[in-house]
Specification:
Length: 291
Amino acid sequence: MLIFALKFFRAFFMINHNGDLIADDFVLATNRSFLYGDGVFETLKIVDSKILFFESHYFRLMSSMRIMRMKIPMHFTMEFLEQQILQLAQENATASSARVRITVYRNDGGYYTPTDATVSYVIQTTPLDTKAYIHATSSFEVELYKDFYVGKQLLSTLKTTSKTIQVLAAVYAQENGYASCLLLNESKNVVEGISGNLFMKLDNKLITPPLSEGCLNGIMRNQVIRLAKNMEGLEVVEEPISPFDLQKADELFLTNVIQGIQSITNYRKKAFETILAASLVEQLNLDIQSN
């Protein structure tokens, strides 16, 4: 009965596969994203039939495809992808508030060496309970994940379909009772969270690792930097963060487009403030409403 129920639930939502709306229940065994992680993706948020920060998402996707040496279709304009996403959201009755994932992958053929440079895409939408960003006040304890390290390289800044370190860190957090983990790079500096960029407030400085450290080129990261630079008495800098810095911090938080800003409340024996994060969430919502 449970298997039947899960299949029924999965079939309720449609996906957009190369412009065709089909049931969300297919797996292609020859898909290069499945076989080799040969794909990139964007996670977006829809509120009231509007895709938040869509221009930033679009240009990051185009940049990622170029770096991955994918052939970008001529029709992959910002207007085309926006229309495809919103059409699917309407079909799934998720246009009010939704999480969207668009995955672009190189088409079938070859082993490590592809025989086809063209791409396909899949768009998925799932409903979200809230429209506005909410600053969560519940406990959120993190720990360092030290089994594997993020490379200080351009590929680490992309949202590729190969996220093994993030998956293993999430399993580690789950097994050890943490809300999430912080990832380290090969220089043993703290890079980011499992699913978000890291910010640290220390005195009057807001610090986040630079992209050269290997952190994701996050859309919400850039929004937070922009908003924080307009706050009086706060200096925003991009510089490496060591594990020793974490316990000196006044405040730590993670950012991504779906959750917005997630305060870290505890790391080891240190408890953190959440004042700046709460203020930034308020500013973020006001900024979205005014645009």
